[in-house]
Amino acid sequence: MSEADREKVKAAAVAGVGAGVGGAGGATAGVLELATLGAASGVTAGLVILGGAAAGAAAAYGLYRFLRKAKSQPAE
Fold first, then answer.
1. For residue 68, what are the CA distances in angstroms to 10, 14, 65, 71?
2. Residue 71 backbone dihedrals phi, psi, to 5 degrees
């Protein structure tokens, strides 16, 4: 496996973990929304969960890229 392939696997793993964490957070927010409003539908809760998963994946991948760049740059 080449170094480029390893980097792709690492990035995919980080984004997957972020999506899992974001989805769990979105599920909590979705459940609270349904309980609070009572009029919200399952579709609304699903959209909140999806949004949380997407935001978690993006944040985790962005943090991974930032830390990877910081690690590769020599200290001055």
1. 11, 12, 5, 5
2. -70, -35
